Amino acid sequence: MPGVVSAIYSLAARPKHDRATWYREHAEQFQRLAGMETQPRVRARLLELANEYTQLADAKIGIARRAVVREAAD
Asked: What confidence score (pLDDT) does residue 37 get?
């Protein structure tokens, strides 16, 4: 997983419609890490992060869809 600063720059450089993919990729990474983790509290936190990133991806998709609908209506 990239460092925090490079991850933020990576996200900022992506088009808005592609950010959902970025969040989904990171959610998958958190899930993989959780699968390897032996400490229950750490594993639970990684799964929480994966869930939060999945929710962010879903929200970005919803925002992108609303923008497309809005553009089509104009």
From this structure: 98
> What pLDDT is recorded for position 24?
94
Nearest by Cα to 58 from 8, 32, 23, 26: 23
Q: Please indicate, yes or no, whether the overall pTM of this predicted structure exceeds 0.85.
A: no
Query: Residue 62: which of 29, 19, 15, 7 has the closest Cα?
Result: 19
Could you give the 3-state DSSP secondary structure of residue 3? coil
Identify the residue with better confidence: 68 or 10. 10
Task: Rounding to the nearest 10 degrees, give the CA dihedral for residues 58, 59, 60, 64.
Answer: 100
Dihedral angle computed from the Cα positions of residues 44, 2, 16 and 47, in that order, rounded to the nearest 10 degrees: -10
Q: Residue for token digits 């899930």?
A: 31
Residue spans of the domains in the chain: they are: 4-73
